[in-house]
């Protein structure tokens, strides 16, 4: 009788251990999915930051082009002013 009781106790312990192992496996799968989701979010954020940096660089280039155009326009305006002064 004692042997049967001991066997039942061990069986219960092993079932409990198996259940805890199954639970741990489930938790690890959820964590792996969460880590994958975080990794994807970080990648998307990194891509967005890269695109933003590229757009900012392009915008700076366009602003420099506008500034050069304004400088050229000012130069032409100065020349015209000098020519008009000849007739005044």
Structure explained in plain terms:
With 88 residues, this protein is mainly α. It has one domain. 98% of the residues lie in helices and 0% in strands. The chain has one helix and no strands. The longest helix has 86 residues. The model has no long low-confidence stretch (mean pLDDT 94).
In short:
The protein is an all-alpha fold and 88 residues long. Helices cover 98% and strands 0% of the residues.
Please give the alpha-carbon distance between the first and last residues.
Answer: 128 Å
Q: Which structural category do the helix and sheet elements fall into?
A: mainly alpha
β-strand number: 0
Series of H and E elements: H
The helix count comes to 1
For the biggest sheet, the summary is: none
Count of separate structural domains: 1
Portion of residues in helices? over 70%
Please state the overall shape, judged from the principal axes of the Cα atoms: rod-shaped
Q: Could you name the ranges where pLDDT drops below 50 across 5 or more consecutive residues?
A: none
Structural Rg: 38 Å
Strand content: under 5%
Mean model confidence by pLDDT: 94
What's the SSE blueprint?
Blueprint (H helix, E strand, L loop, with lengths): L1 H86 L1
Core attributes:
1 helix; 98% helix; 88 residues; rod-shaped; mainly alpha
């Amino acid at each position: 009788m004692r042997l049967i009781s001991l066997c039942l106790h061990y069986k219960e312990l092993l079932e409990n251990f198996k259940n805890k192992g199954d639970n741990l496996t489930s938790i690890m799968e959820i964590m792996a999915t969460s880590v994958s989701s975080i990794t994807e979010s970080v990648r998307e954020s990194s891509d967005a930051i890269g695109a933003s940096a590229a757009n900012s660089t392009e915008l700076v280039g366009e602003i420099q082009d506008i500034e050069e155009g304004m400088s050229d326009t000012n130069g032409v305006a100065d020349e015209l002013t000098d020519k008009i002064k000849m007739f005044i």
